[in-house]
Amino acid sequence: MRYIYLDHNATTPVLPDVLEAMLPYQREAFGNPSSVHHYGRRARVAVDDARDAVAEVLGAPASSVIFSSGGTEANNTIIKGVAQARREHGRHLVTSQIEHPAVLDACAALERQGYEVTYVPVDERGLVDPQAVRDSLTDQTILVSIMVANNEVGTLQPIADIACLVRERGILMHTDAVQAFGKVPLSVDHLGVDFLSFSGHKIYATKGIGGWYERSPAVLQPLLHGGHQERGRRSGTENVPGIAALGKACAIATGDMAAEDERQRQLQQRLEHGIRERIGDVRIQGEDAPRLSGTSNVAFAGAEGEALMMSLDLQGVAISTGSACSSGSLEPSHVLRAMRVPRLYLHGALRFSLGRATTADDVDYVLDILPDIVAQARSV
Ligand SMILES: *Cc1c(COP(=O)(O)O)cnc(C)c1O
């Protein structure tokens, strides 16, 4: 059977060059970067080189990049760590209704500790209004956290505009850039953010590696205490193979970012136009908003997304319904609800997320099999 993977927003395969780059650190170069002997020094060089590669993607100094176990840990450290460090200044945070659970649930945990959180809404296109963020700020606000690119629908938020309004009030600005990192240009100075989270396994590195950028080191209480690795911001022996993988993945991403973005943009149009030509009553989420080129969230009126996903899976096509995290539960996605997607479409949404290996042939195969699958799901 032909297998087609169109779920790159959930995770990506490790690229062969990335695997090559990390293997020495699983084998002979296994040293602990904190060790002073040559094993340790070789591992330290790998960590330093990878930090440079990440910093280059962000236009940031290498010293502002901290490695962690991934995007979830980065989001939790920043949100809880700022809340902890700034609790004498205020106990109010602002985020949006369409954030990843690693942001929403970290905020919910703070609410249980007595912090107040404002969840700013989005419009039908899935965009946050910078003025709505500004209107939500109070004397108590210590942190605003709004994502760059949404993982379910791919919409790109006006982070630079939002950050400008936030920082003009002396409030810290965080952005979860996990889905945008390595896919669109991200300069921390242009964005004007104080913190930015990223992850390796969404950009063809391995699972369990990621990190964050921080502008000023003084405002964060670390989550993990121990051996003072990562300048004391994140203790624990470094995941050297993962860090080497992330560094290589960053170098590859910077090498052809614009070309790969354009290539996936054409595939996205081929997919979306093709679906519209062949199938009636479809709704493409965030169609008119600035969007990632690889993400298409398409809802089919009167069909059940889970049934569509399962039928596609039987024919070798891997996609997801809503977010990977809410797959398996039949609750409609919080993102689609926040976008006020009409009830008729709410349960019939599929997320196609394209990647480096996706070809026009793959898209055409999906377009061939999808009309029958949708017709069948609608007849149930
Ligand atoms: C995947 C993802 C995360 C979580 O990152 P992990 O490295 O898997 O913990 C956070 N935010 C967004 C937007 C994501 O897509």
TrEMBL record:
Domain Aminotransferase class V residue range list: 4-366
Xref: Gene3D superfamilies: 1.10.260.50, Aspartate Aminotransferase, domain 1, Type I PLP-dependent aspartate aminotransferase-like (Major domain)
Keywords annotated in UniProt: Iron, Iron-sulfur, Metal-binding, Pyridoxal phosphate, Transferase
GO terms for MF: iron-sulfur cluster binding; metal ion binding; transferase activity, transferring sulphur-containing groups
SUPFAM superfamilies in the record: PLP-dependent transferases (SSF53383)
Reported cofactor(s): pyridoxal 5'-phosphate
A Pfam family recorded for this sequence: Aminotran_5
Keyword Iron found: yes
Transmembrane segments: none
Keyword Nucleotide-binding tagged: no
Family in the record: Belongs to the class-V pyridoxal-phosphate-dependent aminotransferase family. NifS/IscS subfamily.
Name this polypeptide is given: Cysteine desulfurase IscS
Source organism phylogeny: Eukaryota, Metazoa, Porifera, Demospongiae, Heteroscleromorpha
